[in-house]
Design a protein that fits this description.
Blueprint: H1 12-20, H2 32-45, H3 50-63, H4 65-82
Helix pairs in contact: 1-3, 1-4, 2-4, 3-4
């Protein structure tokens, strides 16, 4: 059974990948708490295995390459705002 990674052990980029494959959208204008809750829920839905989330990001990028960059930029900036202690994206 995969061990759920702690959010503090993940980088801004790691968390942005997880947010990317959540149901939240930029148009939802989610609060920081909504973003953190969505990331926690997605990690649990992926069985605590971040690589499952990364695979979902890759699938979405392949299925919708025209929106990938815009959504990932949103995810990175949103995670940076929701987790200010992590610093800038790596």
């Amino acid at each position: 059974m995969a061990k759920t990674p702690t959010l503090t052990s993940m980088s801004t980029s790691d968390l942005a990948e997880i947010l990317f494959c959540c149901g939240l959208q930029e148009s939802d204008r989610p609060s920081a708490e909504q973003v953190r809750a969505a990331i926690r829920a997605r990690i649990c839905a992926c069985g605590g295995d971040r690589s499952v989330c990364v695979a979902l990001v890759a699938q979405e990028a392949g299925d919708h390459p025209e929106t990938y960059r815009t959504r990932m930029r949103w995810a990175l900036s949103t995670v940076s705002a929701a987790y200010p202690d992590l610093g800038t994206p790596d």
